[in-house]
Give the backbone structure.
Amino acid sequence: MNYNNIIVESADHLAVLTINRPDQLNALNSATIAELSTAFKALENDGEIKAIIVTGSGQKAFVAGADIKEFYQFDVAQGKELAAKGHETLFNLVQDLTTPVIAAVNGFALGGGLELAMSCHFRLASDNAKLGLPEVTLGVIPGYGGTQRLAQLVGKGRAMEMIMTAQMISAEEALRFGLVNHVTTQEELLDTCKQIALKIVKNSPVAIKSAIKAINAGYTDGVNGFQVEIDEFGTCFGTEDFKEGTTAFIEKRKAAFPGK
Ligand code: COA
């Protein structure tokens, strides 16, 4: 598949998806959102890919937000449509993928950029990264899930302060808040993400899918996460991966999971 705004590379069961508009600090215009949506769906359905890393091209930005130049003349209906479409085609899609997705935040992650990182299953940042939701400086609020996911990740009080002040926080502060899991130098960021992804890839893909579903269920309105955990736990017992994992333990060898 040929893309104009993103680059997709894969090796060793890992895909690296790079948002590639460096002269616009990788801002998310509608074409980029559409390409990301297509690429994520293709990777989810690619049996060879067991983890996905998302990053931005260049030294400066992960993603500096939704493309302001594209929406600044929108009216109420268009604004609502922009947010609703974004939720559906990209941000909820990424959150609900059953292939693990790691954000490698390599610089500015602002507005839609931080929202994309927060849709990923977890995040690492380089030590130059700056993270924030500055939408109120533009007279608007985060519209790609930021008001919800930031509060889930850092707590309501910190989310209120970050969104109302529009201040960017440093990678170290993001680490302290639990918004990112690790901070590295920019040079080491992708390799560190890959090392973590390779640890994931060794484990049962079907169990990982169940774990993602169960964890996400706890953050879904009207769904009982504990019940989803019970159901997914039971489902695992019917899989070949469960037979292989438990048999390998009994036989004192490493499991070779078929992923079924
Ligand atoms: N939407 C559209 N274009 C953007 C953008 C965005 N969110 N963020 C950056 N760009 C563009 C700039 O317009 C500029 O393009 P130009 O050279 O064609 O004018 C280019 O990217 C470089 O950005 P610039 O502002 O010159 O870089 P800087 O180093 O001076 O500042 C930022 C970096 C991130 C502080 C600044 O670009 C910024 O504040 N961006 C908007 C952040 C934001 O509000 N995001 C939330 C959007 S909802």
Observations:
- The mean pLDDT is 97.
- Residues 205-250 form one domain.
- The chain is about 50% helix and 15% strand.
